[in-house]
Amino acid sequence: MDVIKCFICHQQCKNSILFLYTAPQGRAHGSSFAHRSELRQAKRIVVKLGSAVVTRGDECGLALGRLASIVEQVAMLQNQGREMMIVTSGAVAFGKQRLRHEILLSQSVRQALHSGHNQLKDMSLPVLEARACAAAGQSGLMALYEAMFTQYSTCTAQVLVTNLDFHDDEKRQNLNSTLQELLRMNIVPIINTNDAVVPPPEPNSDLQGVNVISIKDNDSLAARLAVEMKADLLIALSDVEGLYDSPPGTDDAKFIDIFYPGDQQSITYGTKSRVGIGGMEAKVKAALWALQGGTSVVIANGTHPKVTGHVITDIVEGKKVGTFFSEIKPAGPTVEQQTEMARNTGRTLASLHPDQRSEIICHLAELLTERKEEILAASKMDMDQAANAGHLPPAMLKRLSLSPAKLNSLAIGLRQIAVAAQDSVGRVLQRTRLAHNLELEQITVPIGVLLVIFEARPDCLPQVSALAIASGNALLLKGGKEAANTNRVLHQLTQEALSMHGVKEAVQLVSTREEVEDLCRLDKMIDLIIPRGSSQLVRDIQRAAKGIPVLGHSEGICHVYVDTEASVDKVIKIVRDSKCDYPAACNAMETLLIHRDILRTPLFDQIIDMLRTEKVKIHAGPRFASYLTFSPSEAKSLRTEYGDLECCMEVVDSMEEAVEHIHKYGSSHTDVIVTENEDTAEQFLQQLDSACVFWNASSRFADGYRFGLGAEVGISTARIHARGPVGLEGLLTTKWVLRGDGHIAADFSEQGTMKYLHENLPVTQTLAGQRDSN
C-alpha cells in the first residue's frame, strides 16, 4: 500500500492509506432506503449528537464515557470505508464548566485578598450567557474530539456554520466543497453551529419547504447538512428510545418503530429534553425534511448505558433500534400490530367453548385435503425456486416438499388434536376447600402469545396452528423464505378455518422483512418463543431472546447403546432405523455406543456391514480407534450432530459407563438401549437424565405424532415446564381461582375467628366454573 503524510497531522496515519477492501457503495441519491435492512448499504452517514447525549446530567461538562463509546463506533465505521460526519452539541456545556471554574477561582482570590484570611463565604454564580459559554467551550470540545479520534488513527476537522452559510449560495458552495474534500481525504468533519455569534432562533421559521430549512438548532443543521451532502443516512441521537405516539412515560405511550410522512397528526408531543433548544417535534420535522430530500433517518437513544456502546453500529447493521423514517408504507400491518391483533383475538379464542375450537381444527383438516391442489401448486413453486437457486442440501429439500400423502398425514394429526382440544383450556387440576364457602381451584389456561420460527418445513404451519388453537393461544409465525408460497396458502386456509367463529386474526404470519433477532426483542408482546429448525437456528434464537423464554433444544445428539445381551436382529433394525430413516432429523442417532465384549464378534461385523451398505460414514471415537489397526476417520468431537449419513462409534465397558458417556457428551434429547436383560434396561431408563429414554426401540419414535399427541411444536430438553415432544399440554400453564364469600385473611390469624380446613376436593372432568355440589 502507498503511504503518504496526512496534511492535517503531518504523520503517516491510517487516514492516508489506500484501503484495499471493498467499502459500502451507497446508492444513487434521490430516494431514501425503504427498509432497515438496506441501511447496511449506507456509504455517507451523518451522526447528530444532541445536547442530552453529549452533556452530563448537571449540564456542566461532557459525558466523557458516553462520548468515547460514540467516537469508537464512528471511527470503526470510518475505517470500514464509510464517510462519517458528526454534528455535535456540547460547546455551551463545556464552556459553562470552564467559565464557572474561572469565576469561582476569581471570586475566591478576590474574597481571600479582601478578608485577609482563608475563611470563604458562600459564593453565588452569575447567570452565564450561552454565547459566551459557546465561545469558551468550542476549542476545548474540539480538542477532546481530536484526542479521542487519535486513539483510532482517525483525523478530524472542525467546521463552524451559521444559517447564513446555507442561504448564501457562494458560502454554501464553499462549505460543500470543503466537506467533500475532507471526506475524500478520509477525515471526519465535526460540525456545529457557531453559537458564539448565532442570533436567537426565530419562532415559526424552522421549515420553509423542501429547498429551505432554517438552521435554528442542531436537528435542523443535521438535516440540512445531510441533504446538502447527499448523505445516505442521518442518525439523530437523543435521550429517548425514539418516537412515541404520546409523551414517553405516559401509560398509553406506544413506541413507533417506523414513522411515515403523514403520520404527524397521530403524534402528541411532550416537553423538550433537559438541555438543548430543540425537542422531539423539531427532530421529527427535521427528519421528515431530510427524508424528503433523499436521506434516510433514524432517531435513537444515545444515553442508555446498555446500548450506547453499539447503538450506531446496530443501526447501520439494520437492527431494529430507534425509530426509522420511511417514505414507503407497507401494504400490511407491522409486526407489532400483528402481535397486538393476535393477542386481542387470542383472548376471544381462549374463551370459546372447546367444541368450537375443535370445529375450527377439524375444518382446517378438511381444507388440507379439499384444497390440496392449491397447496401442492404453491409447494411446486417453492421447490422449483429452491432447485434453481441450488443452495439447499437434499435433506432441506425433502423437508420443503409436500405431497398428497403428507397432507393426508397432517389432516389425521389435526383431527387427533381436535379431540384433545375438548379437554384443554379451563381443565381443573386440583380443588381445595380452604374454609367454609372458600374454595380454591387450579385450572389450565393458555400461555398467551407464541412466536414460532421455523425454517424450510411448511408442514409445521398447520401443525403448530392447530396446537395453538386447541390450547387457546395466539400465534405469530415466522417461516423460512424458501417456503414463502406454501406458507402463504397454508396461512390463508388457517385463517379461513378460524373465521368460522370470528377469530381469524388469532394466527398471524409475519411476511415483512423482520429479522429473527428483532422479533426476539418483543419481550412485552410475546410470551414464549419456539424455534423449529437447525441447531444453529435454535442457538441463535436462544442468544437473541431478551427476557422471553425459549422452548426447544439446541442439539439432537442421540445415542444408541448396544448391550452385551442385545438381540442381533433388534440391533440391526434399531440402529438402521435410528440412523438411516431420516438422518437430518433431530431424533436421528448420532453416536453408536458398543459394549467392549461385542468387538470382534459376528454381531459387530453385521453392524459394520449394515452401515456400509447404507453408506453411513463412521467416525471412530478415541477408545474405539485404539482397538483397530486401520481405523476409520477419528471423530473430531464426541459431541457432534452430523445431520447426515454419518455417525460416531465408541466403545464402553458397561451400561453404567454408557450412561456416564451420554451424560457427558449428549444433549438430553433421546437415547436408546438395546438389550434383552430387563434389569439392565430398567437401570438405564432410571439413571439416564434425557427427555426421552427408550428400550429396544428406535430413537425416531421421539415425535409428537408418534406419541399420539397429534403433532408437536418441537422437542424440549429443558428441565422445567414441558420436556420431550411438546404437544397440547406443553402449551398450557395454570392459574389459581379462589371463590369466597367476603373472606379476609385477618379472620385466619391467631386472633381471628376462623381456621383453615385445607380439605382436598374431588376433581371432576368438567371445565372450570362447572362445579359439582361437593
Automatic annotation (TrEMBL):
Q: Which keywords has UniProt assigned to this entry? A: Amino-acid biosynthesis, ATP-binding, Kinase, Mitochondrion, Multifunctional enzyme, NADP, Nucleotide-binding, Oxidoreductase, Proline biosynthesis, Transferase
Per the record, the GO terms for biological process are: L-proline biosynthetic process
GO molecular function terms noted in the UniProt entry? ATP binding; glutamate 5-kinase activity; glutamate-5-semialdehyde dehydrogenase activity
Q: Which HAMAP family match?
A: ProA, ProB
Q: In which pathway does it act?
A: Amino-acid biosynthesis; L-proline biosynthesis; L-glutamate 5-semialdehyde from L-glutamate: step 2/2; Amino-acid biosynthesis; L-proline biosynthesis; L-glutamate 5-semialdehyde from L-glutamate: step 1/2
Which Pfam families does the UniProt entry name for this protein? AA_kinase, Aldedh
Complex formation:
Can form homodimers/multimers.
Subcellular location(s) of the protein: Mitochondrion matrix
Query: Domain named Aspartate/glutamate/uridylate kinase: which ranges?
Result: 43-301
Chemical reaction(s) catalysed: L-glutamate + ATP = L-glutamyl 5-phosphate + ADP; L-glutamate 5-semialdehyde + phosphate + NADP(+) = L-glutamyl 5-phosphate + NADPH + H(+)
Q: Where does this protein chiefly localize?
A: mitochondrion
Q: What does this protein do?
A: Bifunctional enzyme that converts glutamate to glutamate 5-semialdehyde, an intermediate in the biosynthesis of proline, ornithine and arginine.
Q: What is this protein called?
A: Delta-1-pyrroline-5-carboxylate synthase
Question: Which ranges carry the Aldehyde dehydrogenase domain?
Answer: 334-603
Which InterPro entries is this protein grouped with?
A: AceGlu_kinase-like_sf, Ald_DH/histidinol_DH, Ald_DH_C, Ald_DH_N, Aldehyde_DH_dom, Asp/Glu/Uridylate_kinase, G-glutamylP_reductase_CS, G5K_ProBA
GO cellular component terms, alphabetically, are: mitochondrial matrix
Can you tell me which family this protein belongs to?
In the N-terminal section; belongs to the glutamate 5-kinase family.
Instruction: State the organism of origin.
Output: Sparus aurata
EC number(s): the record gives: 2.7.2.11, 1.2.1.41
